[in-house]
UniProtKB/TrEMBL annotation:
Entry similarity comment: Belongs to the metallo-dependent hydrolases superfamily. Adenine deaminase family.
Keyword Hydrolase in record: yes
TM spans (from-to): none
Sorted UniProt keywords: Hydrolase
Secretion signal span: none
Reactions catalysed, as given in the entry: adenine + H2O + H(+) = hypoxanthine + NH4(+)
Domain (Amidohydrolase-related): residue spans on this chain: 78-362
Top-level EC class as recorded in UniProt: hydrolase
Sequence ranges assigned to domain Adenine deaminase C-terminal in this UniProt record: 430-572
UniProt name for this protein: adenine deaminase
Database matches in InterPro entries: Adenine_deam_C, Amidohydro-rel, Metal-dep_hydrolase_composite, Metal_Hydrolase
Enzyme Commission code: 3.5.4.2
């Protein structure tokens, strides 16, 4: 392993300086190119020396020794730093390895990742071993430490969750605290435990990220006083400017459920806004198909097409994030000492690289991917196929709840009064109501209600993919739900659709029942089929994967199905408790 997370070994450092003195030859020399110097904010003509995984020099000088050096004539290319995704959720059906390797091929060579699923799927020791495994991936992988689960957990599980917060926060791969979705608990609920974690983050000199959609100026100011540094929930240019005015590093989002970036940039330009140094792009954990063109490169392209100056656009996609996280001595520029993450462009107007170097190795060359896969022993790290030691019973599918969940869009649910007979074997197809059950992965409890707006005809869907890694069952038919559940168990976790007694779709999620162990290109096609199937059964929205993920998420209004029961989000109250099995 060449690259250390925050330092190179003494022997390597001596070799790096020896390249400058001509006692060692660089491993790669990029000659006669035009590259972006983020510190001068200029396009510079010159050469870039690389030794293994590190940039040794960029400028007008040529190395005195080139014996054995791979020399690349890049006179027809413009080179920019590898792009940075500052807010990745690397478990949206894909896994951190498959996302990172795909991202690197499209020019995004650094990802700062959510750690949420490791808190549910494996123990801390194995999770920390995974962080070391991910250092072998071509992209640079950093992490953030969650303070809240985004749902409501039983007391024992909540205690286990909280016990992991500080060890994660103090890990050297973790460079941020948050994102803090449970900020109302701190601001209004007197949660001093979370406030302590926030202050410990500041003591550790790591930034804090918030999650403040629609926040007023008072909320933004008060959360700034409590320690927040950044926020990515702006939906308009005015919200961006409000956050900037209070000193927030501000993420501009272009995601599968919030593709706001084009309108935000249009609004900023209409307001004659010219200062972009505290902005960065994020795709906020989009679902696989949204990444067909890449991660950060489409964001930069949108910015260029909107009229943002090219240097500002590329710096928002790279250096600004690196500076914010305190890793600009490692990534985000093409200066001496940085990791050799380089994107080769045909023209500054096109941020899609024709060639990519990540950690000094080719990930794409002349538009062709170079894709050796990093070996990870998932089983050794506790991520096996899902094995449930319990079976579904008739009692698990009893629906007597008077209140159901009505979909406003993919992720927002409002309560509604149930007025149909839910004791039948199959709900009528003339309406868009379906049975909905959330069952503990270990078979301890169940929560039942109806969901309105997901389907008008699908017999059954079962998913081991959810925000808390528990099991979702929904559909019109009890027998089809049972059939889908049986098949989900047989394939070791995943998303299964059944209708009229037949399995019509299945997506195996062999890594803990949450993530697929397959290349991104293959997964994208599977997601396309899932969407087409669900739309044929009456799903009226665009992102069913996020619907499944966020059914139990307490950071979204108005009503949720959680491990504690049906919850009123605003009041933080259990309307109807979970039933022990």
């Amino acid at each position: 392993m060449n690259e250390q997370r925050f330092r190179w070994r003494n022997r390597q450092l001596r070799e790096h300086t020896a390249v400058v003195d001509g006692r060692l030859a660089p491993t790669k020399l990029i000659k006669n190119t035009t590259y972006l110097n983020v510190y001068l904010k200029q396009w510079i003509q010159g050469h870039i020396w690389i030794y293994n995984d590190r940039i040794i020099y960029s400028g007008s000088e040529l190395p005195p020794l080139v014996e054995g050096t791979e020399v690349i004539d890049a006179s027809d290319s413009y080179i920019v730093p590898g792009y940075i995704e500052p807010h990745a959720h690397p478990f949206q059906l894909y896994n951190p390895r498959s996302l990172a390797e795909y991202a690197a091929q499209t020019g995004t060579t650094t990802l700062i990742n959510d750690n949420l699923m490791w808190l549910f799927l494996t123990d801390q020791e194995k999770a920390f071993s995974l962080l070391e495994d991910f250092m072998e991936v071509s992209a640079s992988m950093y992490w953030w430490a969650r303070f809240d689960s985004q749902s409501a957990l039983p007391e024992e599980e909540q205690e286990e969750f909280e016990n992991q917060v500080l060890p994660w926060l103090h890990h050297d791969a973790v460079i941020q605290g948050g994102e803090i979705t449970a900020w109302p608990d701190v601001l209004y609920g007197g949660d001093d435990q979370m406030l302590h974690w926030m202050q410990e983050t500041k003591r550790s000199r790591k930034p804090l990220e918030g999650h403040l959609p629609g926040a007023s100026w008072k909320t933004l100011v008060k959360m700034k006083l409590l320690g927040l540094d950044s926020e990515h929930e702006s939906m308009t240019a005015d919200e961006v400017i409000e956050r900037l005015s209070h000193g927030y590093q501000t993420g501009l989002r272009y995601s599968s459920i919030r593709p706001d970036l084009p309108d935000i940039l249009k609004g900023l330009l209409e307001k004659n806004h010219k200062q972009y140094d505290r902005m960065m792009f994020t795709t906020d954990g989009s679902t696989p198909g949204f990444y067909r063109e890449g991660l950060i490169n489409p964001c930069i392209k949108i910015a260029l097409e909107a009229g943002i100056e090219d240097i500002d656009a590329y710096m928002m996609g790279s250096y600004q994030a690196a500076r914010h996280f305190g890793i600009e001595d490692r990534v985000g520029s093409l200066a001496a000492g940085r990791l050799a993450h380089l994107n080769f462009l045909s023209d500054p107007s096109d941020p899609n690289p024709h060639s990519v170097l990540a950690k000094g190795e080719w990930k794409k060359r002349d538009h062709q991917p170079v894709s050796p896969t990093t070996d990870i022993d998932w089983k050794k790290r506790g991520l096996e196929s899902l094995s449930l030691e319990w079976d579904l019973t008739e009692d698990d599918l009893q629906f007597s709840m008077p209140v159901g969940m009505n979909m406003v869009n993919e992720v927002i649910m409002k309560p509604y009064a149930i007025n149909l007979d839910a004791s039948v074997e199959r709900l009528p197809d003339k309406n868009n109501e379906a049975f909905l059950t959330l069952i503990d992965r270990d078979g301890k409890w169940t929560v039942n209600t109806l969901l309105k707006g997901f389907t008008d005809s699908l017999g059954g869907l079962v998913s081991s993919y959810s925000n808390t890694a528990d099991i979702i069952l929904l559909g019109k038919s009890r027998s089809d739900m049972k059939l889908a559940f049986k098949r989900m168990k047989e394939i070791g976790g995943g998303i299964v659709l059944a209708n009229q007694g037949e399995i019509v779709f299945e997506l195996p999620l062999s890594l803990g029942g949450m993530m697929a162990d397959m290349p991104m290109a293959e997964l994208m096609e599977e997601e396309v089929e899932l969407k087409e199937q669900l739309k044929s059964f009456g799903y009226a929205f665009d992102d069913p994967v996020y619907t499944l993920l966020f059914l139990s998420s307490m950071h979204l209004p108005f009503i949720r199905i959680t491990p504690l029961g049906i919850m009123d989000v605003k009041k933080d109250e259990i309307l109807y408790p979970a039933i022990m099995r």
